[in-house]
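Write out a record, fold above all:
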Amino acid sequence: MSLPTTLPDIDTITVGARPLTPAEVVAVARGGARVDIAAAARARVAAARELIERLADDPEPHYGISTGFGALATTFIAPERRRQLQASLIRSHAAGTGAEVEREVIRALMLLRLQTLATGHTGVRPVVVDTYVAMLNAGITPIVREYGSLGCSGDLAPLSHVALAALGEGQVRTAEGEEVDASDALAAAGIAPLVLEEKEGLALINGTDGMLGMLLLAIHDLGVLLDTADVAAALSVESQLGTDAVFAADLMALRPQVGQADSAARLRALLAGSQIVASHRDPAVCTRVQDAYSLRCSPQVHGAARDTVTHAALIASRELAAAVDNPVVTSDGRVESNGNFHGAPVAYVLDFLAIAVADVASISERRTDRALDRTRSNGLPPFLADEVGVDSGLMIAQYAAAGIVSELKRLAVPASVDSIPSSAMQEDHVSMGWAAARKLRRGIDGLARVLAIEVVTGCRALELRAPLAPAPATAAVRDLVRSAGVAGPGPDHFVSPDIETTTALVLSGQVAAAADAAAR
């Protein structure tokens, strides 16, 4: 799976002074920004811990402090067994299986759990906070497995793998990517392994941090990809002799959807100054009444996706302001059970984004297909081939896009409508938010590739319209891909490297940046 490489320009963040921003999470997760803890947060943590220690001495049972967990919540645990209880919780819950989860996801998960710990609502000791800070800053990344979270009671297995590493157990990867024992990595970084006290095991694993981290990364990446989708659409509209008149601001105002207006404005700017577009404005030259939907309705589809991302960002911002744990230490000093660990709010928007991703990819693939079909491309050669019959041009590149789009449609099936009861029916309704996040990440990778294929196609088609000059913005994209080694019109050649190269340009944000810098 390819991952976007765009990064916020942030070197260090302070946790606990205010809710983290999405950009800060991306900076730590993807860019390795350093972390420290606000003094006020440290004071909150210490105050909450004092309350937990008082309750630990209470002969009355308190969930998570002096009892078992889940279906064993009524079992009282004697004081001399509680360290064992906490360690056993982490070891038993670190039951993930499958492929390794990406480093950036694990770092996001760790940072978000750290933020909740810093609220003072979890009851951990300051040393627990310090250990997570030290692990992040040392680049120690616990190995977390693909499967294990149902998205309720939080991302239990993924968070347990992280907590296990903090205990000096299990496997991690160093900052250089080497797989080593957690104990060796901690020792090399001068970090003492944690010995958990009452409540701390639960506090480390009872959160929606994995799914939220993946949501924040997805929102960041979709900002780049939706800008790129507008660029790809501009290339297609221009090279297929479509009209920009349908993107007029007054037409957009008749349907006041914010995202639609934004995408239409971008298309107008991207197509401004195009000799190709100007060449067929005269009705005497062009007798077509309307363009096909995949061209004409691009801002409606891209705009709907933009609005979906805006909604997802609202939900994410609320989660970033949350303290998700069970039980929690309240502001007035109570320790209360709750259900805030349920991942439904995050799971729903993860699934919603997967639908938008699939549809943006779908309309992109339709635009690509039109460019390759001589009966619909308004004068372009079949498959943009050099010698028709001998060369196949970009025929199979469209197959690749179609195959990806078909998979994205499957990935758009919601995970959050499913639920499998667990923990002896105590946890009888779960969110499946982790699964929703995992499939969204795959979907984003697929969208980038479909857009890259449209960019490759659009750039070649533009050159086949010579001597008419394209718009400055689309010309800049053509020049970018050519400078990266992507071939233009000519005899058949090895196509896969062109797609991979252009996918990297899409993911890095260079395609959108080049177009925007040149747009009028």
Notes: The longest strand covers residues 12-15. The mean pLDDT is 93.
